[in-house]
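Lab manual, section 2.4: Encoding a predicted structure.

Procedure: take the sequence of the chain (84 residues), apply the prediction step described in section 2.3, and record the output as structure tokens. A sample record is shown.
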Amino acid sequence: MNNYDKKMTNRLKRADGQLQGVLRMMQEEKDCIDIVTQLTAVRSSLDNLIGLIVAENLKTCLLSETAEKKEDKIEQAIKMIIKK
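Recorded output:
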């Protein structure tokens, strides 16, 4: 069971808007540093969203799983967060 709330959806929409802005910047041939700065902001936003989604999902799973499965879920969550 996944819990994607309105905040999460809004964060993703904001990141999508930022990416669209980066595309416009590239089409307008803006400076490299400005484009990279915006892309870094998008990446940071997405990293934060990933952490939030994994944390919320893990919290839900831990409340409903058996003791044996909890350890597996924690390991899976750690791998998802540190996977880069």
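Check your result against the sample. Residues 6-82 form a domain with the Methane Monooxygenase Hydroxylase; Chain G, domain 1 fold (CATH 1.20.58.1000).
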